[in-house]
Write a structure and sequence with these properties.
Layout (H helix, E strand, L loop, with lengths): L1 E2 H4 L22 E4 L4 E11 L4 E5 L2 H4 L3 H4 L4 E11 L4 E8 L7 H11 L5 E8 L2 E8 L8 H12 L14 H4 L3 H9 L18
Antiparallel strand pairs: 1-3, 2-5, 2-7, 3-4, 3-5, 5-6, 7-8
């Protein structure tokens, strides 16, 4: 795990039942609460095959090589931060780009974290293309601001029943080869499926 503020210090699988849904941002602001700076940094590839459109985790760390890297699919770093979403009354995963421009999401959230008093205010977050807006709004006195949901999630984390690593799907290289669009790119580049097969274990008689 990584501390969020440390990750954005420059301004310019253990699956479980608590795997989080991704918070999708658009021009309509989502009202959220920040309750932790603990986050997970992952290397990802974006693919759009018709049947699947979204991010997949890079396989280099788990398999030593990645088919998506080998066919020059763009590699991006995403930071996964759990947040409380008012609309759904649930903990959701916010996927944050690693960019550090003034209109990027990460640096703006870091500023809000450093202001403190996050238990007394909501954040209204929106996105238009690659530009993000983050604004603060006070929490009214006596209003339930997700404390029960947040406490339950933190209990799951302590018990090892919550996972950020499963938020972004991972497909083994051999399964990626079953996707026609990816298989055609690989074939055109002379990449073979057997190149990603596990190395055979040879028994040596003593």
């Amino acid at each position: 795990m990584t501390d969020f503020c440390d990750r954005f210090s420059l301004i310019a699988n253990e699956s479980g039942p608590a795997t989080l849904e991704v918070l999708k941002l658009n021009e309509q602001p989502r009202i959220i609460s920040l309750f932790t700076s603990e986050c997970l940094e992952v290397k990802t590839h974006f693919i759009d095959t018709g049947d699947f459109r979204g991010y997949l985790q890079c396989n280099t760390e788990t398999e030593g090589k990645c088919l998506l890297c080998d066919i020059s699919q763009r590699l991006e770093t995403r930071i996964i931060l759990p947040v409380y979403d008012v609309e759904t009354n649930s903990i959701m995963a916010m996927l944050i780009p690693s960019t550090v421009s003034p209109s990027s999401l990460g640096p703006q959230l870091r500023i809000e974290m450093e202001k403190g008093e996050l238990d007394k205010r909501y954040l209204m977050v929106s996105r238009k293309f690659d530009k993000y807006s983050v604004h603060s709004a006070p929490i009214s006195d006596g209003v339930e601001a997700g404390e029960t949901v947040i406490a339950a999630f933190l209990d799951q984390v302590k018990a090892g029943r919550a996972s950020l690593s499963d938020v972004i799907k991972r497909l083994p290289n051999r399964e990626l080869f079953e996707i026609p669009q990816i298989e055609r790119k690989a074939t055109a580049l002379g990449i073979r499926k057997q190149d990603y097969e596990p190395a055979a274990v040879i028994a040596i008689d003593e």
